[in-house]
Queue: 3 jobs
Job 1
Amino acid sequence: MDLNTASFDTERLFVRACTPKDAPVLTSLMTPEISKWVAAWPTPLTEEQTEEVLCSVVEAANSGSVFGAVVIEAASGTVIGWCKLDLDGAEAELGYWIGEDFHRQGFAFELSQGATAFAFEQLGVDLVRAGAQIENQASLALIKKLGMSREGVQRVWAPARQRFEDCEFWSIRRDDWRSGN
């Protein structure tokens, strides 16, 4: 599968591979409130910085190691967030964020379910994992709601803040996903 043209949809979302042309809208969505919970997206953020991120994701997708995508509300065609699956053999690590104006509408959970299904069904991985800072109770609750099992806490380098942070990681195997979803 060409990860630079891949996409999936859910009931309300269309998730498609990113391009450098997505830099302006993603830059506008990245706020301090979002940035504090994600490792790689700093604020303030320039369009040039976002374009560099997107170019590196496109390059990694060429090698088959990353699916980086914009999250679009299907009804309006509005970009509302970001999704990334880092691929390592039979495993994928899910990362995502949704713009502040689109919080509390169930988009993050819907996206996470769709991305997990995409990883298992289209990318053929055997395990999907996700993590969040130990203080990010909303994301940890979402991960648990996906049916994932707790792996433990790991120190993760957060380039957005130039420091290590404690993150709690969870995972789910393909067979457990099928039986629970």
Job 2
Amino acid sequence: MFSFGLGLFMSFWQPKSVLQLLLLGFLIVVAPLGLAIMHTVQTLGDLSEKNRAVTAKVISLNRQGQGLQRDLLDLERRGRQYQALKNDELLDLFQREREMILVKLNELELLVEKSPSVLAQLRQQLVSLEPGRQNPDVLIEQFSQVADARFAASEWLKDEVDFRITAHAQESDRIKDSLLLMVLLMVLATLSLMLFFGYWINRPIQNIVEKIERLGHGDLGKAITVSGPQEIRDVGLQLEWLRSRLDKIDQQKLQFLRHMSHELKTPLANLREGSDLLAEEVLGGLTRQQQEVVTIVQRNSIELQRLIENLLDYTHLSDQVLNPEPVIITELASALLQNYRMSIESKGLRMTTQLDDSEIMVDKQKLKVALDNLISNAVNYTPENGEIEITGGIDRGLLDLSVANSGSAIPEQEREHLFKPFYQGSSVRRGPIKGSGIGLSVAQESIEAQGGSLQLVDHASLAVCFRLICPLQEQ
């Protein structure tokens, strides 16, 4: 309950600095222990006073009891002396000693707070003693009764002392147990407060760490707000300024890529049209060497067009809208492979294709982008006279495709970075144009936008294999 109230207070009050928060936390954490110490000191002081009072009363009871016993023996001796000598002075002395004993009985009764029956009986017997008026036999019988009463009073006095000592010991044990319980509760409260303030102090710092990690992963869309002491909030404001700057730079980068891609597509289209006209010998016949040059221009222009389209696709990765349409995988794969026919033939690659020819419903453009990048990756990284294998089909409402190629395996330390934008691995690209490093990133984003996945997996015989899993969509 206390921690809840403290948490509610801290939610409305914000310290001005980390030092202020630390000092406040220290004071609040130490407060239960301070209260426990003060209560313990006060309790021990009260117990000490009570111990002195009980000790003094026990000593007084012992002294009164012992004195009473002596006085009663002296009184009995004085009465017997008077009976033997019949001296009036002895009678007066007997009367005075009896009055003194009665006074001591009154003091003893006041000391025990509640007069027991043995003291009342002893008083009655003392009052009835009259050595001058009673015969010796009766007086001896009375003194015998006084002796019995004296013995009973002595036993009662011992019991009274033992009772007071025992009661005081039990009270001391009870206080000790209550102090131990209080100390245990205070220790638990202190530990709870330590954990609470540890969390309260660490939370803003952990929040900043999370914001920095979010910036590191490229999440720039959400504004950064950090609560806590003023110093921490100032750091949060600087992080928000950094986020806005990074977001602005990222938007400028995407805008630059879009503009550059569109600017490059127009002259590239003219270049491809011109190379196609030369290849078709519309302007006249070509020699063998000229035909080879035209083929090289066509092949490189196709690869350059694919790289430009990758840049365009990368700038639109945030567009998650799906446009499902019927697709026949065999036709899509054949159309894409036709673009790489010249590269495949020039490198002498062996192609193996095993695909389901049924019609499926997927986002054709996104699937085409992903499959095109996987085929391009395989063609460019497969050595001459190597092998490429494309297999797949429909399994329980999922499109399962694999594109594998021979060559060098991807090192283990590079696999976790393989799908990051603009990452260039150590594998040697054998295509005519160096890649941009965004092909696999674009392919993965295109498949994940449809709820699927793209992963690097092991193959039974080939070095590299990418597995594409895409859920089928509804029309």
Job 3
Amino acid sequence: MTQAPDAEADAAPRAAPFRFTLTELSGGLGDLGTFLPLVLAMSIVCGLDFGVVLVWAGLASIATGVWSRQPIPVQPMKAIAAVAISERLAAGEIAAAGLVMGVAMLGLAVTGTVDWAGRHVPRAIVRGIQLGVGVKLALRGAEWLAGTGGVPGGGQGLPLLGWDSLLVAGVVAALLLTPALRRLPVLLLVFLAGFGLLYASDPGAFAGVALVPPRFAWSLPDGAQWMTGLGHAALPQLPLTLLNSVIAVCALSADYFPGRGIPP
């Protein structure tokens, strides 16, 4: 008795064996270059608990790996993050945007309309949204460099160039251009080295640092936060998630894992 093609394709990823190598470790941390700057900025500007975000992001990444047996990324919602940072959204507004996105994606998945939506959302709209949120984020960064727009932590601005940033850029370039080192988790090493650079430039920066557990708390957004989260953050994020995080990722899955591609 042969297995139906759809069932076979669905079961194949879960039947694949696990493997954990240095290359897998490096690939699993490949999104830190996008994830950490966005989460750090949202923690500083919007008051998110950095530890709570890391815990849930880590659990979600583990869950997708266990289910798919493939490196399916749990991508940060860049449009929501860019709007949250540039417009200083409150934590409740960010939570509302995330909940709306979760319900919307679940509805598209269980009704089977995700493919239809992916085909009918014009790519020009998605690219336009990407450009718009990128410009908003760049303008906010320019304000911080100039010392205007409310620098996080109440600082007086950030230097455009410094010995630490130039050193990090040089080290990253050297690591990426050296074939023997490409299997190393470069982004994690650079992130950890950043603490060393901070200590070298300001030894007193760690004086008030204490290890504390994440502060888990339940918070339901109110009416105004639902409207802001929906209109300002969730709606721009929806087409990006559909095409970049679902359609494109599943297409790559089919290319890299023939016969085991993850359906949208």
